[in-house]
Amino acid sequence: TQIASPDDGLAEPVGLGFLPDGNRAVIANSNGAILTVDVRSGEKSSVTCSCNPTRLELMASLGVFRLTEAPAQPQYMFDGSSLQTFFVPAAPTNNIRRPRDAGRRPEE
Q1: 47: nearest Cα among 6, 16, 8, 1
Q2: Residue 8 C-alpha from the chain's centroid
């Protein structure tokens, strides 16, 4: 059974997942459209991300999906419970020193 089409703004889907209830599918499109579809009733809702999704990866927190790829870059996520996208800044990677490293030189 087809649950969505290009008429729903899905010309280039990059991923499909399901929310924890198992009744709603989430489809991410490369143009930023994130569509949720109730697979029983056919009801659809859509939000737009200010990003260009490259994936739809389920995270450890139920119903939250990562939309972008590079872990060292800023990330965009979709929260299926609120049907909203949100931005997660990249963690700094240069010269990070943990408290236990305080007495060490960088080359150690």
Answers
A1: 8
A2: 19
